[in-house]
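User: Some background: our group keeps a shared notebook of sequences we're curious about, and every so often someone picks one and asks for a predicted structure to add to the entry. Today it's my turn. The entry only has the sequence so far, pasted here. Could you supply the structure so I can complete it?
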Amino acid sequence: MNKEHKAGKHCHGGHGRHRRGPTSYGMHDSSLVFKTLALQDGNVFLDLGCGPGDYSIHAGLEVGPSGRVYAFDSNNVMLEHVKLQAEENGLKNVSTYLGDMTGKFPFEDGSVDTCFMSTSLHCMNLEEYGESVFTEVRRVLKTSGQVAVLECKKERTDFGPPLHMRISGEELRVLIEPLGFTELHYIDLGFNYLICFRKV
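Assistant: Of course. Here's the predicted structure to add to the notebook entry:
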């Protein structure tokens, strides 16, 4: 089992559309998430740890036929869900990639406008892998590209990942900003939050 999926049911929020697998998409106002991301026609969107692909499909509709969505996950079953959703929505701009977030990404330098990570970071050891993951994210982002992280707040709840696995926005700032990023937005989504950084 790949490193970012060792925690099993907790790894993509563990709450929401269980029929297609775990996803945080239904836990909050996802239209607010995409309003904040401000995707444009023709953009390239990388969904790291995409799960069943709800965010990938939404992004595919936002970036239009001239844009691209790269759905990346270590679980091939989840990627099959992404393919099915893309077909159901008539999307030809969504491509799936099987791989480990802690390794090298199969994307060219400076090729991505937005890198999105939803409830997947808390499944890995950030102390061990965080710097290499975000260095790799920075490599694939275009000049002034953005990385957006959606995670469960570091608060005790009766669902989702246990408190010790959760990551606060401040912990992400301390990790990400020294690697060549500046914060753009922090959005409160109720149980979750979205924090966005621009490559500098």
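Suggested note for the entry: Strands lie at 44-48, 68-73, 94-98, 112-118, 141-152, 181-188, 192-199. The helical segments are 30-37, 54-63, 76-88, 126-140, 169-176.
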